[in-house]
Write a structure and sequence with these properties.
Helix content is about 25%, strand content about 25%.
Length: about 375
């Protein structure tokens, strides 16, 4: 079928909305009419080839939409269902079998390879030539998307469908980083470095978990203001203090937990130094491949501090996304306050506003629910 897709042709280029051809779904696949899709920092990382998904490519990995057609072996969804598309995984490796699909042994191949891992084909082509079209198992910067049964999550139809796409990556990453990975105790303290959509989702999750000190750290004042609205008990702008670590230690005596969402190694180092003894740092922010950070082993790590890496909030999307929807329904997780909508044709403006900090979470409206 013929679709409209935002194609990235070259490193550092712009998203060009063009015609493309989408195959029929294979036996384990699902055809989705895309209603909305979030714009995420990971899309920009691939645009700039910090992660080497082959170009040209159709990116987009926070899609929501309506099931149009299912493959012969698909049993969990049917045409007409509302779904959120999340990350893909093989479903068979030890991590997947242990309900930790975000740590799938073949995560990179399934999400950044640009093709079906099982046969190396892509469902998207232009002028008879295949282009990368399996980004995070969906490539949702398009009017229609092919996903797998594994990475589509059915949702009820009483919540705005165009809102739900970011639950597939950024929102579940921040919330899951707190709820699933760090699992802070009630009454504990946490510092969240970065107040984008991931960091602010973590702020809301820390409030849900009962943290009594929630410190949001960011350079952009309007984001810190939003953090206070969403549950932060304190904020810190590094531009307004001489030393971030010293300021954090003076305010808290060292936090029990910290979450690093920026992907900047120097910030990860500051986050480690902000911990109290036996504190835990979760690292979510994704820098370019091969990026290194350094830590004082004697004064930091040997004093009981620990560092854990987090992918996709260590979430099982089939379980966690419905949980987040229910929290939203109960007005305990108002992630809609992070969202600004754009028409599909405004994708470049959405990217620009995201990178400048003007918009926290851009969502492209692609079709009617």
């Amino acid at each position: 079928m013929e679709i409209q897709a935002a194609v990235m042709h070259e490193e550092g280029g712009s998203f060009e909305i063009e015609e493309a051809t989408l195959e029929e779904p294979q036996s384990d696949e699902v055809l989705i009419r895309v209603v909305g899709t979030g714009v995420c920092h990971t899309d920009m990382i691939v645009r700039d080839q910090m992660y080497p998904t082959p170009l040209p490519a159709v990116l987009g990995h926070e899609g929501s939409g309506v099931v149009e057609e299912v493959g012969s072996n698909v049993t969990s969804v049917e045409p007409g269902d509302h779904v959120v598309m999340s990350f893909d995984y093989d479903g068979t490796c030890p991590s997947c079998r242990d309900s930790h699909p975000a740590f799938c042994a073949e995560f990179f191949e399934h999400n950044f390879g640009g093709a079906r891992p099982k046969d190396g084909t892509s469902p998207i082509s232009q002028d008879g030539e295949e282009i990368s079209g399996r980004f995070f198992g969906q490539s949702s910067f398009a009017t229609y998307s092919i996903a797998t049964e594994r990475n589509v999550v059915p949702v009820e139809d009483d919540v705005p469908l165009e809102l739900l796409g970011p639950l597939g990556c950024g929102i579940q990453t921040g919330a899951g980083g707190v709820i699933n990975s760090l699992d802070p105790q009630t009454g504990s303290s946490i510092a969240i470095f970065g107040a984008g959509s991931v960091g602010l989702s973590a702020v809301m999750a820390a409030d849900i978990k009962g943290c009594t000190e929630i410190i949001s750290v960011d350079l952009i004042e309007n984001r810190l203001e939003k953090a206070r609205e969403l549950g932060a008990t304190d904020t810190l702008n590094p531009d307004k203090v001489d030393d971030v670590v010293e300021a954090m230690q003076e305010r808290t005596g060292g936090v029990d937990y910290a979450l690093e969402t920026t992907g900047v190694p120097a910030v990860a180092e500051q986050a480690t130094e902000s911990l109290t003894q036996r504190g835990t740092l979760g690292v979510i922010g994704a820098p370019g491949l091969g990026t290194e950070a350094s830590y004082d082993v004697n004064n930091l790590i040997l004093n009981g501090r620990s560092i854990t890496g987090i992918v996709e909030g260590d979430s099982d999307p089939q379980q966690f996304i419905p949980d987040l929807v229910e929290l939203y329904r109960q007005e305990k997780f108002p992630f809609d306050e992070l969202v600004t909508y754009y028409d599909f044709e405004e994708i470049e403006q959405a990217v620009e506003d995201s990178e400048s900090g003007e918009t926290i979470k851009p969502v492209l409206r692609i079709s009617e629910p």
